[in-house]
């Protein structure tokens, strides 16, 4: 049941293969209070999912994300009716220097951490699949890049479209 509401979030991966999550505020009037979640938010009228993502990251973490860097991973119709667009990107952020304006804290998490933390928005399947498919490969000058080939989890509906929006 689609509600017409869209959201965008991002799996930010660092060179160590960890992903960035934020601990949501502990307020009873918000969905999934005091749970870890991917950064992101609701798409505003007239806004593309990518523009939403760039805006939300700037508003919530004061990080200016280059719109050319995120890649659309999948778009899923969530059980509560939201069409959610999940992007991936690589960033090596120093969390001590981030000015967080929403949520309680940020953290880097590896594959084994995901199974042990309280995740909001039913993200366990997506993140488990992401880590399952994650491959770390060596590139020029000894740098490392993380490449992921991930499809959405089978029980989610995949919508095809412009890979940047």
Largest sheet: 4 strands, mixed
What percent strand?
Answer: 25-35%
Count of DSSP H/I helices: 3
Radius of gyration: 15 Å
Distance between the termini: 22 Å
User: Into which percent range does the helicity of residues fall?
Assistant: 10-25%
Overall mean pLDDT stands at: 81
Low-confidence spans: 135-165
In the sheet with the most strands, the strands line up as 4-1-6-5
Architecture overview:
The protein is 16% helix and 29% strand. It contains 3 helices and 9 strands. It has helices spanning 49-61, 111-114, 124-133; strands spanning 6-13, 19-23, 36-37, 40-42, 71-77, 83-90, 105-109, 134-138, 144-148. The protein has a 4-stranded mixed β-sheet with strand order 4-1-6-5, with helices on one face. A 3-stranded antiparallel β-sheet has the order 3-2-7. Strand 8 and strand 9 form a beta hairpin. The chain starts with 5 loop residues before the first strand and ends in a 17-residue tail after the last strand.
Can you describe this structure in just a few lines?
This protein has 165 residues and is of the alpha+beta class. Helices cover 16% and strands 29% of the residues. It has a four-stranded mixed beta sheet, with helices on one face. A three-stranded antiparallel beta sheet has the order 3-2-7.
């Amino acid at each position: 049941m689609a509600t017409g509401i869209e959201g965008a979030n991002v799996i930010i991966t660092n060179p160590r293969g960890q992903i960035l999550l934020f601990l949501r505020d502990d307020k009873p009037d918000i969905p999934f209070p005091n749970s870890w979640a991917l950064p992101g938010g609701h798409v505003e009228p007239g806004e593309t999912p990518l523009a939403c993502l760039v805006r939300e990251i700037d508003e919530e973490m004061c990080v200016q994300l280059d719109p050319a860097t995120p890649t659309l991973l999948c778009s899923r119709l969530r059980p509560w009716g939201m069409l959610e667009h999940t992007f991936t990107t690589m960033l090596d952020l120093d969390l001590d220097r981030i000015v967080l304006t929403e949520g309680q804290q940020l953290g880097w998490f590896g594959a084994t951490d995901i199974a042990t933390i309280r995740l909001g928005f039913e993200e366990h399947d997506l993140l488990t699949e992401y880590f399952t498919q994650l491959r770390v490969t060596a590139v020029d000058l000894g740098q490392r890049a993380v490449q992921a080939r991930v499809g959405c989890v089978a029980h989610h509906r995949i919508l095809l479209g412009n890979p940047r929006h």
